[in-house]
Amino acid sequence: MNNFCRIPKHPKAIVFFIVAGLFSFIGTVGAADSPRFEQDILPIFYHHCFGCHSEKQEKPKSGLRLDSAKGILVGDVVVAGKPDESELMKRVSLPHTDKDVMPPLKGGAQPLNDAERSMVRRWIADGAKLGSWGKFDHRGSALPVDDVVLSHKDVRHLSLEVQKRIDQSHTAKGTRLNAPVSDEIFLRRVYLDVIGRIPTLEESTRFIESRDVNKRSKLIDELLLTEGYVSHMYNWKADLLRINSKIAQGQPARLYDTWVKDTIRSGMAYDEFVRKLVTAKGYLWENGAVGFYVRDLGMPLDHMSNMTRVFLGTRMECAQCHDHPLEPITQKDFYQMVAFTYGVSNLGSPGGYSPNNVKQYPEIKAKMAALPKDEALEQSVSGTIAPLKRLTIDTNMQLKFPETYAYDISLRGKLVEPRTLFADEAIITGDDRRKAFADWMTSPRNPRFAKNIANRLWKRVMGVGLIEPVDSFSALPDPEHAELMDFLTQTMIRLRFDERAFLAVLLNTRLYQSDAVRENPEPGMTSKLLGPQLRRLSAEQIWDSYLTLLVKDIDKRKFISREGGTLDPTYLRKLTLMTADEIIAQARMDRAEHTRKRELGLRRVEQQKALAAAKDRGDEKEVKRLMAAHAEANRAMAVEPEGELIPTETDPRWKSLPTNFIRASETPLPLPLGHFLRQFGQSDRREIDAFNRDPNSTHSLALMNGDLTTRVLAEDSYLRKQLAASKLQGQQSMQLIYRAILIRSAKDAELAEISNITKSSLNPEQDLIWALLNSPEFLFNQ
Amino acid sequence: MSSILTDINRRTFVERFAKAVFGVSLMPSFGNMHAAQNKTGGKARSVIFLYMRGGISHIDTFDPKPGKSEMGGVKTIKTSADGIQISEWFPQMAKQMHHVSLVRSMTSTQGIHDRGTYLAHTSYFMTSTITHPSLGSWAVKQLNPVNTVLPGNILINGSPQHPRSGYMPTQLAPLPIVDPGAGLQNSALPKKITDSEFIRRSELAQAIGKRFVELTPHRDAAAYLKVQQDANTLMKSEDLKVFNISHEDKKTQAAYGTHTFGKGCLLARRLVESGVRFIEVEDSHNWDTHNDQIKQMENMTPSTDQTMAALLDDLHQRGLLASTLVVMATEFGRSPQISNTTAGRGHHPGVFTWWLAGAGMKGGYVHGKSDEIGEHVAEKPVTMPDCNATIAQAMGMDLQKVEYSPSGRPFTVADKGKPVLELFA
Predict the structure, then answer these.
(1) ipTM surpasses cut 0.85
(2) Are residues A111 and A164 in the same domain?
(3) Which domains does chain B have, with CATH numbers?
(4) Do B207 and A753 touch (CB under 8 A)?
(5) Residue A778: which H helix or E strand, with range?
(6) pTM for this structure?
């Protein structure tokens, strides 16, 4: 089997290639215009030819390079004015089946489509003009930066500046913004976008009844400072960083979650956040940011692919195994990037016990050798110090070119020198490769770093990125919205990467506060800037909105992890500092605890057997007695796989509620299959943004018959209690239900319809609650 | 419960059910039929993949070492297959061994649960840039459905880490059955809700929904109105009965056992009868026996033995075994040495056992061999991709067919595993 990737058949991927290759610029050229080289032809060469014919390859195929004027004009590759005599035109026009067709179908490249072929033909016919273009700058240049510093107080001004550029784009194209949204629509939208749930009745009443002319921008500022913002932002970051609680066995992985949440809460600047991740050192219990590396234990190549995708909007994973067939990114480029982080312990280097990670290790070994042979104690010591193995530090391990490296055999097995992919070089002082890399990546001069986060945050609130797909950045100029994108990038830098201020800029624009685009986004097209894109809520938003109706002060309710167990951070901090003797003593204690657990375990086994027998006999009384005993043993054993004890709720507000009625961001992942969040497409965090929002009738089954709906309908639900307390009846009560669930008033026609359908009903209010939860409107952000 | 939609004819329903459960376009493309022809295998219309989570010991089950101290005193027994002995803890399975091919030379490099489990299900090593599809998703992707009504890929009692459809569309992901005793999740009305209430509420939801959809050309908005109607139809359908094991007679239910795995396997058999392609049942026992091997095995094996044997026997009695491949899989074996301190066995990917039965596999056959104490492979090593390739071949799948991920990466079913041709009768 040929081992190369090729253009996929999957529709999503086709969108990617179409955007990258064609549609992105076809809109800018009318049929009558003469194609311009840099705007129209270069992107075609970039995606179809540069994979083999550029200076990036060790040996460009046939010695042909199409990334320079000199290369293009060699021989009869391009004969100006004569497309039919141009070798390039001939070769790209051959049928798929011809072995000489360019690009060749093997190796993953994609043939030109008709529009592209005719574009190239017209360009040659018109004289193959290159203008002032001399050669393609693969590395691109760094961003010029100024010293302007802006802050949250500049938000209003910046919003107007952004809007000005949007308006200019409309003037140029003869389009215009959608109509402004009502307060009700704005309210629901901004709650969902900023804090990830619908507002409570109280919250919406306060906003709707306020007469303050600045109430929208005030609400935006307020919401950005809430715990709900932390929750919703965390889900977004966790999907990007692939955070789940099971990322590393025997490690307190939740401390990574906690660290990320803390940085959101404290408003840590985004560039600092990334710098802290990339340069993270220590144990999870000393520095939660090391979860960034512990997450990808033993996967140094994947780790780098994911990092460039998430932080630089650049996909390199094709180049893990071979030169990228669709872009001039070589395997060597990729290896040079990995060389920056390869030395990180746990990532590229094997993790055993050594004085590097467990500093007490030599002394423990010596002491154990002096003691009489005790296998049980040895095992116990090994278990006791096991968490200490996962220290994240830089080792002197260095990356080598793989033995399969095909492009320059002499490099096989040779050390790879680190080098950045684009723009500035990273200056390595001393041994700290990671610091040099982090400085390069997060620098305002990096042309993709600020732009990536600006574009991703834009997509987060507007529904579609200014550049789509968000991870398709290259050295090519932006196809559309370039000026707006540049301004947003500068704004991000000038706001010193303050995500809250940047979001406030976007949320205050008239664009954000316009009616949504209610059609499907057109495949391959970027936003027309008419309004935010209507979209289905994420699984987390649906769950959190349900809980808004079920749980008072939902944002404040947290996952309770009782202290205790060997993964408790306090214990681990102590363990880190223990002497060899203390560790051996601890190991003896651990062994005793282990023995106790084993005994309990055995007792449980006996109970299970007795229980099964009693059930078979139909001895109800005995079954009951054994169940109680079994529950008791379970409590004594009650240690979840990660060592956290099963919590019990003590807060009176939530005492009668299941412990898992907490915001999605608080729930340890991955959740069981069949859980509401999984059904609605929550990411399992194996991959970047692996969520899914496609309609499926298991969704309807859950909304119609599932536990959450049943609970909202129950008399003692938070919503029902609020309705009862309002003392409203009849149509007024119906209105209140509308406002609580859909966050809007019902129209008269709707009320009439409701009373018609429910006229024979004994409890029309419950009918309405059920129906609103089951109406598509509940599931969409409009 | 009275039927709301008695007038819906069956044919319409058939189409709706498929769309309802799968969302859109569940049908794999036709045209792969040639794959099965003129080749070994191709007899497995359905597969039941029994997964023993935690890593089941090979020595204490299907690869015993009579007389060795590593057995920890556990005896071996003769089986219905000449010359094949298994552990005394599987007396029921001993009567079924003439149906079974044991692969006693399974080997892997992955000694961590999640990585081993991932490899067992996908045949690929775990990475963090892509999730590979599980074998069931490959099956419904490549093969034509036997039954166009029911989902082709069903996972009973699956664990949260299951790779599901990986990079493939979610329509190919296994439909999870969380509780095999309760059938399809949320498909029954909650207690206290009457039919007439349900009808009224649905009508109201549709009326309210219609207004939104009229204003909203986005396809997913209309789709949600539609899937609600589909779900509604589904709830009242005859076909839902296949998920209800209480329709089985008491004797059959008792034969499989009333524990989750027993119910799951009984449900699996019902699904096979309805033509579902790939059903995975995870045993709810945790076979990760680090402590007290003997005691724990004594506790866990009887119900598992009962269920596996009942399944094979039942399939055989009903004439389904010829077209159904039953596989027992696990992520690794357990170390031959019983720890002095914990009395348990550690993870052991070096050698372990899977077995296959039915659908044209040899019966009463042993492939490969572990060494004297079950520590290393002695003969004919078989990897998990090899074994999955064998299953794929038995199902008539094309092992050479390259499928591309959305990011354009090429993959084949069972990676580069080579089918174990000696297993085919």
Answers:
(1) yes
(2) no
(3) 34-187+243-423 (3.40.720.10)
(4) yes
(5) helix A776-779
(6) 0.89
